[in-house]
Amino acid sequence: MTKKNLKSKQKHSSFTLMEMLVYLGILAIVFLIISSFLLWAVRSNKKAMAMRETLENAKRAMEIMIYEIREAKSVYTPTSVFSTSSGQISLETEKYLPDGETTSFIDFYLCEDRLCLKRENSDPIALTSENVEVKNLEFNLIATTSTPPSIKINLKVDYKNPKNRPELFASVTLNSTISLRSY
């Protein structure tokens, strides 16, 4: 091989500075696109998780309240608490014991930012998790003379988001009207 052929072969087998810069630019663009997609996927997953947890907490709390109101004997109103809306309700229930039937009471109310259920002679039980906060709880008594009373429930639950991250904003509002069973 001559010196000219050897130089020509070496010239074609190496990258020029311009080729390296183009290669690095394309690589950077591809990396940016992939990392943006991964970041979007992580945020979407967090958003879905926050929405799912908020909805599940609200639905579970509403289902428990609906069940207990339906099974209640009456709505206990020692004063005219239910003349307008209220954030607490007391239900009179029948409790069957081996020695006979007795009356018991169940309360639903807000304890700080969680929804709680308290049965007579028991400690309160939180119906919502620590990751959500109940923003609104209203019970409206709809009393009629010909049918058993009904209760209208308005429940709003938000996901706790102390840093106000947009991907963790989740809110659910549920409404339901339940009639007490007639005995």
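Above is the first protein from milestone M3; the second protein from the same milestone is given next.
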Amino acid sequence: MNIALFGGSFDPIHNGHLAIANYIVQNNEVDEFWFLLSPQNPLKTNLRQTCDKDRLNMLHCAIEENPKFKICDIELSLPKPSYTIDTLNELKKRYPEHQFSLVIGEDNLSVFEKWKDYKTIVANYKIYVYPRHNTTPTFKHSNIMITQAPFFDVSSTEIRQRINRKLPIEHLVPKSVVTYIVQNKLYS
């Protein structure tokens, strides 16, 4: 089975994340799309995040109706910070029958050479890259595919700020996620 891995804090997951996932599944040889919940990005160590349980629950709310979407929480049990190469090695050990690829934004591609063992990653895994605002990736390799995924000028940071300022977010996140955020008084 071909599995696309999309790592992130998903704090909260939003419609842009879901549009990218839909695009990758519909336009590539991908059987399933796994949202890889990250406990700590090693390049963003100062980031304060919502607890793992709430981010996991919001992911469940957002993807429950799409059978091709799954959640992978393997990084929650791995040493922190989580490095993509370590996650890939562990997934390969647990699921030797699967082929894994990565989904990253152009902003991540522009810092890809800072990733732990990036040469090993790019040599062994396909990497689907979706557009981001104001980035010009220079890293090239035959395993890197720049996609024509739709561009969404929205971020989880912006959504948290909107909630804090009591601005609407219904157009930015799935209804089930809005309900979860309100019921659990997140980000306010």
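Note on the second protein: The longest strand covers residues 2-8.
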